[in-house]
Specification:
mainly alpha; Arc Repressor Mutant, subunit A; globular; TetR family transcriptional regulator; DNA-binding; HTH-type_TetR-like_transc_reg
Length: 194
């Protein structure tokens, strides 16, 4: 998990101790997801694993779906930015989309839980985290395309990526298959670097 504070503009920043508690609960949440399933996860169980009171966990995470959405956001923030100008732009874009698609590829329980949490219900806290995830994805695509990139191309790449996630989340394709399919879609949208 990353160590930087994750509060949004307009929110009260967490102090060091609060950030440590937030991270403890978040880490316990992903560990439990890796060992069990979405159905078995509860905020109370995660709090117990993190060795904090349930009320403390609920201070940071309003629901199981909110906790899982934050887990996915944290994983997405760990995906590197592809900015090497010595690499052709199509190659950078392909690497960025592949890295994001493969974030949960080898963790089927985490992938399933994230899909369920992010696509279920209308919880406003999950919606806010979903927006932050979208901003992280946008940031990585924008970075790969470069500062002079056409906003329409960036939008097309984002829509393609989100559609690919839905396909993988629904089980139509594996995340590895989606990563491969994204490679040729990138060539269609931004051209080939060969």
């Amino acid at each position: 998990m990353t160590g930087a504070a994750t509060t949004e503009p307009g929110e009260t920043p967490r102090n060091r101790r609060q950030e440590e508690t937030f991270r403890k609960v978040l880490t316990a949440g992903i560990e439990m997801l890796r060992e069990s399933s979405y159905a078995d996860l509860t905020v109370r169980a995660v709090a117990a694993r993190a060795k904090v009171a349930p009320a403390t966990a609920y201070t940071y995470f309003s629901s199981k779906n909110h906790l899982i959405a934050e887990v996915y956001l944290d994983l997405m923030k760990q995906v590197p930015l592809f900015t090497d100008v010595n690499e052709p732009m199509p190659s950078r874009v392909e690497q960025a989309l592949r890295a994001m698609a493969l974030t949960v590829a080898d963790e089927p329980e985490v992938a399933a839980a994230c899909t369920t949490a992010l696509l279920t219900g209308t919880d406003p806290t999950v919606r806010k985290v979903r927006d932050r995830i979208g901003a992280e994805i946008h940031r990585r695509i924008r970075s790969a395309v470069g500062p002079t990139g056409d906003p329409r191309v960036i939008s097309a790449l984002e829509m393609t990526f989100f559609g690919a996630l839905v396909n993988a989340g629904s089980g139509a394709f594996t995340y590895h298959q989606i990563a491969d399919r994204l490679s040729y879609v990138v060539a269609l949208i931004v051209g080939d670097d060969q």
